[in-house]
Write a structure and sequence with these properties.
The structure is a homodimer of 320-residue chains.
Chain A lengths: L1 E9 L3 E7 L5 E8 L6 H17 L4 E10 L2 E2 L4 E3 L9 E2 L1 H5 L8 E5 H12 L8 E6 L3 E7 L2 E2 L36 H14 L16 H9 L3 H25 L3 E5 L7 H13 L10 E4 L7 H16 L1
Parallel strand pairs in A: 1-4, 4-8, 9-12, 12-13
Antiparallel strand pairs in A: 1-2, 2-3, 5-6, 6-7, 9-10, 10-11
Helix pairs in contact in A: 3-8, 4-6, 5-6, 6-7
Chain lengths: 320, 320
């Protein structure tokens, strides 16, 4: 009988889930809306109907555990707390309420970037590594940090918010209420802002001049850069420079073996990686120069969020 | 028969050592010069003569292990590598050569700030804490980081160099060859530079106007601040502001339970702690506000370097 775990990725708009075996193969998957359920219990009950439907179609199997990746997820408490991009305000006791559905098995929750890090370690390119960092470049910038083989959760479970370190004290306003955070530059939203800055700075043609701020997406900028659009390429250069300078600081904190990048913007390839590498090395403290690998995630363009969430459960099961 | 470990603190000018029991009491101590021995073996043999002399005076005891704190110490390799303030160039195989003197016992080496962190955890105010950071404010700025109950050494053993993170891209030149590193502001050398900047900016009287740059010390600035000297107090205010802003960034990486400060400058008390706390909180990401304690090290004004070094050995012995 096949052993499976349930991996749940709670996104701002949709929730995806998968039933995943120990080898990281998604045997069945599904999704439902996250938005549109002001009451958390209603959302959970709908999600669980979908999960039951998917399980019913599978041959006989044994469910071993559940892993959840969620914005503002707290590993210690199994909660989602003060997530600005979800409808549920305050603290959502996610794992506690999941117990009504899944008794007698581990249920683990953490934030999406930490789940990505554990996914990278379990199913991706960080197998066997004890010290590495995963950056997820989505709407915001997430980071999952592994040191001594363990994810750093910190005293209150919210460690690893490198997206909210300072780049420029007089810089861009951030959703967190402060100014100049890394994610206001390095994220899909950040590069949008950079494109608009460059469209103001330069006079040259660009296919992006016809697109409104609201319509512009990280995907469009990536495609434009790959097609040779100067503004889009310069936006990646700018993003890579800011990112690379910050990575030099990240390295002196953790001395990672590798840094993995994940997310849509990473599909721009060298347009992002080359300036990021260059400026990381250029700003690096001498004894770290040339030592740290900057790599694309081994889960890039896979269903990494679901794999990451499921790896949480597999990791927990491996402890016992 | 009393069980003791030998703790060795290798400083740029002097080396101190102590024979320390499990309770953190220094039963015997001594010191010798670090400078003046171009050949490492000569230094070591002189140091060991001093240790033997100290041991000979003690009642019967059993030596259980040796711990060494040293600048640019590498935990994994037991080496001192490329230390700019020591006479020995390249890589010094410290623990390997110590084995000639101490067979069949653990010999552990790490850098001084990591030793301070383990000392804080073993004999100081971080007992029972799993996530905390120690900053040592000396000539430079060292940091020892503990997450999940373990010191972060990183892939190559040199993690925890927060003194070399960026504060100001157009800032002060640093001994490391780059610009704007935290330790060019927050350290004994950093506050000296700040005093000189303020003596240039302001016209007011100050007892420090009669002191040359070469003669000025962190101790003199601390004493002047405690006596009410405006320039000295402003220098601490400036140092605390820069430090506090950076601490807000440190917190989002690690989510520590507490941050401990150690070193001569910390004797200025609230002149340093108040602005550091204020600006840490003022720049903190919302979900960390009010959660992180900023404290004076529990080993402040004790022989912390020797206690830290000895705690390395006790910690290793506890593993077995």
């Amino acid at each position: 009988m096949q052993e499976l775990v349930l991996g749940i990725d709670v996104g701002g708009t949709n929730t995806k889930f998968g039933l995943v075996n120990k080898q990281g193969e998604i045997i069945a998957e599904g999704s439902c809306k996250t938005k549109g359920y002001p009451v958390f219990k209603d959302y959970l009950s709908h999600l669980m109907l979908n999960v039951e439907e998917a399980r019913a179609k599978l041959p006989e199997h044994k469910l071993m555990g559940v892993g959840v990746g969620a914005p503002n997820g707290n590993y210690y408490r199994g909660t989602i707390e003060e997530a600005t991009n979800l409808e549920w305000k305050g603290t959502v006791y996610f794992t506690e309420q999941l117990k009504d559905y899944f008794a007698d098995m581990p249920i683990i929750l953490t934030n999406d970037a930490n789940a990505a890090a554990i996914g990278e370690m379990t199913f991706g390119s960080a197998k066997g590594m004890k010290d590495f960092i995963v950056f997820t470049l989505g709407t915001g910038l997430g980071s999952g940090i592994v040191a001594n083989g363990e994810v750093i959760y910190g005293a209150d479970g919210f460690a690893g918010e490198i997206g909210h370190t300072l780049v420029n004290v007089f810089g861009r306003t951030c959703g967190c209420g402060r100014k100049g955070c890394l994610e206001t530059y390095v994220s899909a939203t950040g590069i949008k802002r950079t494109v608009y800055k460059l469209l103001a700075d330069y006079m040259c043609d660009s296919e992006l001049r016809g697109v409104s701020f609201n319509d512009l997406s990280g995907h469009m900028i990536t495609e434009a850069a790959l097609r040779g659009d100067f503004i889009a390429q310069q936006a990646f250069e700018y993003t890579g420079r800011v990112f690379g300078m910050k990575l030099a600081d990240t390295v002196v904190h953790f001395s990672p073996e590798a840094i993995f990048l994940f997310g849509g913007l990473v599909n721009a390839g060298d347009h992002l990686l080359k300036p990021a590498k260059y400026h990381m090395e250029d700003n690096m403290l001498r004894n770290f120069k040339g030592k740290v690998k900057l790599l694309v995630s081994g889960l890039q363009n896979k269903n990494a969020a679901v794999l990451g969430a499921s790896s949480l459960a597999w990791k927990e099961l491996a402890k016992n």
